[in-house]
Amino acid sequence: MDDSVLSQNKIDELKRRKEAAQQGGGEVANAKQMAMGKLTARARINALLDEDSFHEYDLFAEHEARDFGMERKVLHGDGVIIGTGTIYGAPVAVFAQDFTIAGGSLGSMHARKITKIMDYALRMRIPLIGINDSGGARIQEGVNSLAGYGEIFWRNTISSGVIPQISVIMGPCAGGAVYSPALTDFVFVVDKISKMFITGPEVIKSVLGEEISQEDLGGARVHAELTGNAHFFSESEYDCFEQIKKLITFIPWNNTQKARNFAPKPPKPEYNIASIVPADPKQPYDVRDVIRCVVDDSDFFEIQPQWAANIVIGFGRMEGRTVGFVANQPLVMAGVLDVDSSDKAARFIRYCDAFNIPLCTFVDLPGYLPGIDQEHAGVIRHGAKLLYSYSEATVPKLTLILRKAYGGGYIAMSSRHLRADFVFAWPTAEIAVMGAEGAANIIFRKEITEAENPDEMRRLKVEEYKNKFANPYVAASKGYIDMVIEPEETRKMLLHGLQVSNAKQADIPFKKHGIPPF
Ligand code: HXC
Known about the structure:
Blueprint: H1 3-21, H2 27-35, H3 41-48, E1 55-57, E2 80-87, E3 90-97, H4 108-124, E4 128-132, H5 143-159, E5 165-169, E6 172-174, H6 176-182, E7 186-190, E8 195-197, H7 201-208, H8 214-218, H9 220-227, E9 232-234, H10 237-250, H11 287-294, E10 301-303, E11 311-318, E12 321-328, H12 339-354, E13 359-365, H13 372-376, H14 379-392, E14 397-406, H15 407-412, E15 422-425, E16 430-432, H16 436-443, H17 445-450, H18 454-469, H19 473-477, E17 483-484, H20 490-500
Parallel strand pairs: 3-4, 4-5, 5-7, 6-8, 7-9, 12-13, 13-14, 14-15, 14-16, 15-17
Antiparallel strand pairs: 1-2, 2-3, 10-11, 11-12
C-alpha cells in the first residue's frame, strides 16, 4: 500500500474529527446564542486574540458522566475551549465556556480542561483570561462538579498576585461560575449579556417564592454600579474585548516583571492643570482632568468608574511607564471616604503593589463619611483596609495634596506616615484635623456662646483656625510634605519622583502573610 495515501487518510480523519469537535452545540444552539446578541465561544477567542495566534488544546476531550442520560450525550470538548495565544504580541492563556453545550455547565472533564490551562498560565507566568458563560456546577455530575470548582478556586487563589487573572462574564453565570471570577483581579461585564448570581431566579422563586428577572438580579449594571463585582462595563462584546486588550498593555505578564514601556507622549495641550481646581474649597471639579494633565497623551484608563465614584482608580502612563492612580473625586460626595470607596481603592493598591506598578495618589477630601449607615456598614473595618494596603505597599508611592486633607483622610491617603516616598502639596492644600468651621465650633464653643456677638466671634475663630492650618506650610515645616509646588510643576515633580524611586528597596519584616481587615 502507498504510504502517502495512508497518511492522507489519517489527515482527512483528523480534519473530520476537528470539524465535528469545533461545531459547539450545533447549528440550532449556535443560532440561539447569536440571536441573544452573543458571539460563540470560538468567535470570542478569535475576537480577543491576535489574528491566527490561538492554539487550542484538548479539543477531543470527552466527558465521563454516566448518570441521568449523560452517557448518551456527546458534548464536544465538554463545553469549554482552552488554549494559548497572544494579545499585541504578549502571551496569554485563555478558556472560553460554551453555553451552547449543556449551558456551559461545569462537569469534571470541563473542570480538568480549565485547571490544565490555569496550570499552564501559572507555570509559564503569563496572564490567564477566562470567558465565563455557564450555568455553574453540572447538576448531573454531582460532587464531581463541585470538586472541579474547588480545584479552580484553589488555583485562582494560589495564582493571585503571581499572574494577572482576568474574568469576562458573557452570559447567565451562576453558582461556581461567579465565585471563580470573584477571586480574580479584573471582571469585565457586557450590558444585557452578563448576569452573575449565586442562585438564579428559578431557585429564588422555588425557595423564597419571589419573582425577579436575571437582569434585575445580577445584570451587568447591577454589578458595575451596585455591588462592585465588575471592574469594566461595555455596551457590546467587541467593546469589551477592546478594553481587555487595552488593560493587557498596562500590566506586566507576572509579578517578577514590570509592565511594558511605550514611547513617551506629552499630555494633550487642551488640559490646563492650573485652571481645573477652583480656589473655593467647597467647589467641586473632576479630578480625572487633573490626572489627564499628567499622563501621556492624557489617556487615563479608569477602573470601576460607575461604582463608589467618590474615589477614582485606574492606569495611565508617564514617559511610557505604567502608573496606578488613586484620587479622591470632589465631584461625588465631595470625595469622602466611605465603606465602598475604601474597599475599591484598597484592592487596587494591593494589585499595583503585587505587580510592580508605582502609585500616584491625589488627595482632596473632607475625611471619612460620618453617619449611622456607614458605622453600621462597617466603616471601621473597610476604612482600615485602605490604611493597611497603603502601609504594606512597597512600590514607589507618590502623593500630591491638591486641596483638603482632613482628619483620617489625610493619614489614609498615602501620607508620609504610611511611608509615602514623596509627598507634594499645592499652595491650595489645607491639612487639618477637620474643616475650619467644624473645628472652631468645637474648640471655641465657650468663647462663641459667651460672646456678645456669637456670629462675629465664630467668624473670627474660623478665620484664626484657617490662618493656622488651612495651608500646607505647617505640615511642610515638619517634613510631612517634601515640597509645596505650583500646579504647573506637577508632572515634572512626579516624573522625577518616579525616576528616583525606580530601583526602590523597602524592607518589611519576614512574615508568612499579614492579616488584613478583609
Ligand atoms: C446542567 C445546565 C445547568 C447546570 C443550565 N443547564 N445550567 N445543565 N447543569 N448547572 C442547561 C439547561 O438544562 C439547558 O439545557 C441549557 O443548559 C440552557 O439553560 P436554560 O435554562 O435553557 O438557559 P437560561 O434560561 O438562559 O438560564 C440560564 C441559567 C439557568 C440562569 C444559568 O439555566 C439556571 O438557573 N441554571 C442552574 C443554575 C444553578 O443553580 N447552577 C448550580 C449552582 S451551584 P437544554 O438541554 O434544555 O438546552 C454551583 C456550585 C458551586 O455552581 C458553588 C461554589 C461556591
